[in-house]
Amino acid sequence: MSSVKAFSSSSELESLNARFTQSFALMAMIWILGLVGHFTPLLEWPALFLYVIGSIGLVLYRGKKYGEWESMFLAGGNLRKSLLLGGIVGLVLFGMDIMNTLLYYKNGGAPMMEMENILVNRSLLFLFPVLVFAEEFLWRGIMLSSMIEKGFNKHLTVFLTAIFYVVNHFAVAPVGMKERALMAMMAFPIGIFGGYLVLKTRNVWGSVLVHMITMLSMLLDLFVIPKLLL
Predict the structure, then answer these.
(1) CB neighbours of residue 83 within 10 Å
(2) Which pTM value belongs to this model?
(3) Rounded to whole angstroms, how far apart are CA atoms 113 and 179?
């Protein structure tokens, strides 16, 4: 770790420590709930609910009560540059995902039927944008920002938050392990590129855009490409 920055007041340090602790505590609770739920009829649904509501709720709570919007990279920084770079990175990842999906199906890969069932038969497709906000607010917002502010090495911070994001798919996705692994593979580049983008611009919205674009490619992976090839 590098040296922690100087704080003008003890309240600033307390605020940072609270953000750091609460983000990791939320992650731990999500993972524990997902593990326990896996062995019950509820599966990972309670963990997924906590993930979405907890991540968005925690960030909104701290932003509204303590005015930490800029500290969590939800405001300030270089928004224009963040969105521009986010659009470019998102399109690159979009193309990479489509190519990988084509190769996957051509090599005999099976469609992600469980995920398709959740999104279509349970009418949860509309939750995709909400899920993106939750994921970006937690991993690239409150957690990444607090780690950087506490003096963690920036490359280690990006790597760790990306790994946490990848592992989280195994804790909250109510589908089989194979489909979780496929989603986790797609998550890693989002976490890496999104993390460095946030560090460069000190603004999370470019990473949100990256995530939204790659979610569009995932929808093509699920509903369009299989019908063209299979």
Answers:
(1) 18
(2) 0.92
(3) 9
